[in-house]
Design brief:
elongated; 20 helices; mainly alpha
Length: 399
């Protein structure tokens, strides 16, 4: 059925929120109009409605490149169809040969485990067609010769689309951007940089958290990954530029460098000590900090409440969000602010560094530098380390 005018009218009505647009689109799809079949299939996939795969097959059979790619993606992930990487490569190759750059990029990664030459070829083609994520993946492929080969899809659930889905649930295009471009790039990044799943999740969470901060903020000037995104990300509307994957790779490299082992010396906190046995030391210190920072602003007061709930109660961020009546992303931001305020307050208690610091003073200052890390997605171990450190501060630093 060749009815481009009817399809364009259906798109216009859909964009205006008119229910007649969906009805007209469904009628066109029922008649076999390839673009309408693809668009109706996408809407059904987003809503979890049945019949999407059949519509995609109709459109793909008529040579619709985006439908071919979507079928390849579904086969690669085993979403709605049986997981079959051979089928995934076949459908993605049809789309890639049709000139679809995102299919060329994903086809390159699908070939990586079986045919490195084809992987490099399609990544080069995608890069030439403007996919910055393909350039980033080529950098990673040749950066560690002989290293472990990447998984094409991430089974651990530490996907960029999970983060995007939480932060921008009303923008399915943003989630698709992550699914098409960022997830494959992230999976390759994790394998080539030999990251554990929790490290990968830390990187992704921190990356999107920092994106929400003003790009012009002084602390971020001169950071290549951030400067590259200036004007290209709007968290309120979920807008992304296609070089977000390269920025993520650069951010990960910065993050790994910052995680280099500290200089040898006494540990600022002994994780083998039960922090609850030192509650009489760290609890008053934490309460005093919160009382001093709360009057600064409502944001500081809430940050103090979040940090105290995490440390004193061991509360999960989701539970704190429910208690405060805010989204979890807000709690993550409050925890970050609280970490900065706590670090600043401890630095004030320690005073200027002495000309010849003792091993204990050096350990206290190293611990102070670790406060933001301990409060970022705090595990039981991180919480224990920070509480032991606060007990050490209470015992040794001047009032």
């Amino acid at each position: 059925m060749d009815d481009p005018e009817g399809y364009e009218e259906a798109k216009r009505l859909l964009a205006a929120g008119d229910p007649a647009g969906r009805a007209r689109l469904a009628a066109l799809a029922a008649g076999g109009h390839p673009p309408a079949c693809f668009r109706e299939a996408e809407l059904r996939l987003e809503a979890g409605e049945p019949g999407a795969v059949e519509l995609l097959r109709t459109a793909a059979g008529a040579g619709h490149a985006r439908a071919c790619f979507r079928l390849g993606l579904l086969h690669a992930k085993g979403a709605g169809v049986a997981q079959d990487l051979d089928q995934a490569r076949r459908w993605c190759e049809l789309a890639a040969r049709g000139g679809l750059a995102v299919a060329q990029f994903n086809l390159g990664l699908l070939h990586h485990d079986g045919d490195p030459d084809q992987a490099a070829h399609w990544l080069h083609v995608a890069a030439a067609n403007g996919v910055a994520e393909a350039e980033a993946c080529l950098d990673l492929l040749w950066e560690r010769p002989g290293g472990g080969r990447p998984r094409t899809w991430d089974e651990a659930g530490t996907r960029a689309s999970v983060v995007l889905g939480r932060s921008d649930a009303g923008a399915p295009k943003s989630v698709r951007f992550a699914e098409y471009y960022l997830d494959p790039c992230l999976d390759l990044l994790a394998r080539r940089m030999q990251l554990r799943s929790d490290e990968t999740e830390d990187i992704v969470q921190q990356f999107f958290l920092e994106l929400e901060q003003p790009l012009a903020k002084g602390a971020h000037r001169g950071r290549p990954w951030k400067d590259a995104l200036r004007g290209g990300y709007d968290p309120a509307r979920g807008r992304f530029r296609p070089y977000l994957g390269r920025a993520l790779v650069n951010f990960a490299r910065d993050w790994i460098r910052a995680k280099a082992p500290p200089a040898p010396g006494p540990s600022p906190a002994d994780p083998g000590i039960d922090p609850e046995s030192h509650r009489h030391e760290w609890a008053p210190l934490l309460a005093r900090w919160r009382a001093e920072v709360a009057p600064r602003s409502p944001a500081a007061a809430r940050a103090g409440e979040v940090v105290e709930a995490v440390l004193a109660e061991g509360a999960e961020q989701a539970a704190i969000a429910a208690r405060l009546g805010v989204v979890e992303r807000t709690v993550r931001r409050d925890a970050q602010l609280g970490a900065e305020l706590l670090q600043e307050w401890i630095e004030g208690r320690l005073g200027p560094p002495p000309a010849e610091p003792s091993p204990l003073d050096a350990a206290l200052r190293r611990g102070c530098a670790l406060v933001p890390e301990w409060l970022h997605r705090p595990s039981a171990d991180k919480r224990a380390r920070l509480l032991c450190y606060l007990a050490l501060v209470a015992r040794t630093a001047p009032a």
